[in-house]
Amino acid sequence: RDLFFMPFRKMTETKHAMIVVPLEKSFFSIDSFKSACDQHDNNYSDCSKSKASSDSDFYKSMVGACIRCNINLAEKYACLWFATRYYEAVVLGGSHPYNNRQDQNCECACP
Questions:
Q1: Is the pLDDT of residue 69 over 90?
Q2: Quick check: 102 and 44 in contact, CB under 8 A?
Q3: What distance in Å separates the CA atoms of residue 98 and residue 40, rounded to the nearest whole number?
Q4: Residue 68's CB: how many other CB atoms inside 10 A?
Q5: Residue 67, exposed/middle/buried by CB under 10 A (0-12, 13-18, 19+)?
Q6: In the chain, helix, strand, coil percent, each to 5?
């Protein structure tokens, strides 16, 4: 069975994104990435963190979750595949949420 083309059942909302949750959660759960997503949201609000650094930390956290999961090798590869897709999504589509959070939380240091 090809894990990459599994049917999807719902979208899970985080502060900045909608994430597709696989219908069958036998290989890993979106909850495996919840901590990474929450930290990513917090990093976007942190005035000392760049977008690139926030996104990189997000990816590393998801990869760590995949590695820590007690799953077989094929499932681990599927988990890493999803982690990479989520990372690519925030790299490509996260500028607007990042800029909004920075505008809301960070004061401009004018000369």
A1: no
A2: yes
A3: 10
A4: 9
A5: exposed
A6: 60, 10, 30
Retrieve residue 53's tokens. Answer: 């650094």
Q: pTM for the full model?
A: 0.72
Q: What does the block give as tokens for 57?
A: 């930390």
CB 28 within 8 A of CB 86: no
In 3D, which of 90, 88, 89 has the Cα closest to residue 50?
90
Chain center to CA of 26: 19
With cut-offs at 50, 70 and 90, classify the pLDDT of residue 76.
confident
Nearest residue to 98 via CA among 56, 57, 46: 46
Q: How many residues does the chain have?
A: 111
Residues 5-28, mean pLDDT to the nearest whole number: 45
